[in-house]
Amino acid sequence: MARITASVYTSHVPAVGAALDLGKTGEDYWQPVFKGYDFSKQWEKEQKPDVIFLVFNDHATAFSLDFIPTFAIGTAAEFDPADEGWGPRPVPKVIGHPKLAAHIAQSVIQDDFDLTIVNKMDVDHGLTVPLSLMFGQPQAWPCPVIPFAVNVVQYPPPSGRRCYMLGKAIRKAIESYPEDLKVVIFGTGGLSHQISGPRAGLINSKWDKAFLDNLSKDPKKLTRIPHLEYMREAGAEGIEMVMWLIMRGALDDKVEEVYRFYTVPASNTAVGHIILENRRKTTGKRATAGKSRQAAARQASAVDLKFLPSARRARVGNSNPKPH
Ligand code: DHB
Ligand code: FE
């Protein structure tokens, strides 16, 4: 049986991709951003997922503004990095998993969620930047990826509650797939940002941090946030955060927060990143081995352990960001 073991949430700021592609990660501006992912790269190596289910939003790239599906699942064998106006990013093509994607489509649609089936799609920074942040610059991405696009570009986007319930349907679909696959679910977008208009540059760290706290501990509370609150508190593009509830719905109610990072700003955006794992059901030796494996991963990373507020949680980031 396939199973979801963990979820990774991260902002997908396009300038982060450009910094990587142009060799600027060591610059003073970018260093703190990339350092925040050292732990995660190590964690991901240990996770060894067989498949990544990646929830993202297309930024009027593959779908243009001519037609905009609310939820779209990529069932193709491969997806090329999109040309967003400066040529495609020099990153590997994304290899899909058509069989699992088709199975998920069948199960989720039978569960009353209408998905658009996408047999051809180029993938923009919403998908490629998170892969780069988690895997660096490999010759090939380490496993197949199923892209899952959500409309947060044109009103009306789906509600948080619907996203959360969809996550549960996706989990059910994955867990009814007969092959023994380890699936990690990724979500991208956010945190607070507004790219244009009189409030361009808006960042609301207090709201972002409360969102991350609730994502970890009380996600149902987040499902009640109306669109207007995202817009008002997190900026017009802050609505991307509603997608994070899809991943959260696909996880257990109670999860292990293994890592958190928050820094302000990267380009126009507050960068937020969190890793949640389903709690291990094993006890005794295997569970202890799991814990020491996590501890080793933390130590191997550049994360400064003095930031740890508890033995279970790693948190780094700009502790005193400047709210705008
Ligand atoms: C920026 C952030 C985004 O999420 C995006 O899609 C485009 C631009 C930015 O911070 O510049
Ligand atoms: Fe975006």
Ligand roster: 3,4-dihydroxybenzoic acid, fe (iii) ion
Estimate percent helicity: 25-40%
How much of the sequence lies in strands comes to 15-25%
Shape type: globular
Class by alpha and beta content: alpha/beta
Q: How does this structure look, described?
A:
The radius of gyration is 18 Å and the shape is globular. The longest helix is centred in the C-terminal third of the chain and has 17 residues. It has a single domain, classed as 3-Layer(aba) Sandwich (Protocatechuate 4,5-dioxygenase, Chain B), CATH 3.40.830. A hairpin with a 2-residue loop joins strand 9 and strand 10. It is built from 11 helices and 11 strands. The relative contact order is 0.20. The chain is of the alpha/beta class and 324 residues long. The strands form 2 sheets. Strands 6-3-7-2-8-1-10-9-11 form a 9-stranded mixed β-sheet, with helices on both faces. The chain has a two-stranded antiparallel ribbon with strand order 4-5. Helix 4 crosses helix 6.
